[in-house]
Amino acid sequence: MQDTLETIDHLLGIGVESLNWWQMALRAIVVFFAALAIIRIGNHRIFGKNTAFDIVLGIIYGSVLSRAITGNSPFWPTIFAAFTLVILHKMLAVMAFHSSFGFGNVIKGKPKELVKDGELQKDVMRSSSVTENDIKEALRNSGHRPDISSIHRAYLERSGDISIICKD
Question: Which of 3, 8, 25, 136 has the highest CB neighbour count under 10 A?
Answer without folding.
Answer: 136
